[in-house]
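User: Structure with heme C, tokens only please.
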Amino acid sequence: MGNPAHVPGNANPPSFYSLLTAIRTFTNQFFCNPHVATGHRMPSIIFTTMKRRKMIFILPGMLCAGILIAGFSINPRSADPPTKAQLGEKLFFDPLLSKDRSISCASCHIPQYGFADTLTFSIGIHHTATKRNTPGITNLSGRPNFFWDGRAASLEEQALQPIANPDEMGLPVEEAVQRLNEHDSYRQYFQQVFNSAPTAKNLSQALAAFERTLETANSPYDRYIAGNDSALTPSAIRGRMLFIGKANCNNCHSGEDFTADRFKNIGLYNGTTLKDAGRFDATKDSAHLGFFKVPSLRNVAVTAPYMHNGMFKTLKDVIAYYNTPDSIVHDGIHRDLSLNKPLHLNKDEMTDLENFLIALTDDRFKVAHH
Ligand code: HEC
Ligand code: HEC
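Assistant:
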């Protein structure tokens, strides 16, 4: 079960810098992102300021001020030089990195939803849908593989792929680097942080450094593991016992982040109606057909919909699947043997398990969930 000595989360206090970024992101998204404008998606508000969701109501009035401040106050000559992670944060929220300047990383990895999307498939430039569901990206710093099929081996290697991916940001990496070089403030920031002009390599390093700050370890579950017995409700405590015991979830979702960094097949590939071959795409080994990265379950309550294809809308749906997989997908190929028998969880037990999963939510995401 979870290791109590989990790497402490980066407290990431809201800084003036983040606030400015938030205002800029909001203005960018609100005015420049067609999906927001047409109401398909909530405007994203930066992680560090999400407790200020009430700002939504005063933001319209502040937008003009925001544009002015954001335009004139981020003056690298007068402010402290940014850290690598702060530069990465700015890039993460900047639609400059997409071909038509409409999409940033945060358009799909939305801060208040654990950096996941609320759509089954996200929408990239030119309204193209992504081929897979957008995963949350908290607690990735210790992971050895990225993407549902594990095709990237580091956050640095991962970071450039969405920029170039035609379904996502559609901007060849060389062009992205050129844009940054033509941009006065970015040229200066890269100089300050890397002592170099922007390159593909330091662009990926900055984005990865920001992503490594998204560690979370401040959930009711963490407090319970640290010795506070009343941090979990009795139902969530029963859910934890089911997770480890009767429901056997821990067989795959183990370790401090509930992933164990393995690839497993839970039966969501049948080659006909469910065609995503998962890990096979990366290895071309037919033994890997239908295997997917076991995702971390931290903050999972705020990252619906679920699975590589977003086929389950709620945690209840997910638990119902594991309870009787055959009643939902009867012809999954090479499904893990541990899922061969129904779990026989009754209604109360399913609720307990759900409450345990909800207790893995870091406090900073609470507002979004309730
Ligand atoms: C258009 C939506 C979209 C945009 C924009 C986008 N992503 Fe993603 N992201 C996805 C999807 C979909 C996946 C899963 C793809 C897969 O597994 O094949 C993903 C996967 C990831 C992962 C792997 C997570 C894991 O658990 O393995 C990371 C990290 C990530 N994205 C970071 C970024 C960064 C950094 C940017 C900006 C440079 C970005 N994304 C832009 C949709 C998006
Ligand atoms: C045999 C290994 C295995 C077992 C056992 C298992 N899981 Fe999973 N779990 C996975 C894999 C692999 C995925 C991703 C599958 C996919 O996308 O096709 C996943 C996905 C999930 C997701 C969706 C996460 C997301 O971000 O979309 C949740 C929630 C989840 N599992 C909870 C549970 C619970 C609760 C149990 C116990 C009832 C359990 N799992 C048992 C391997 C397993």
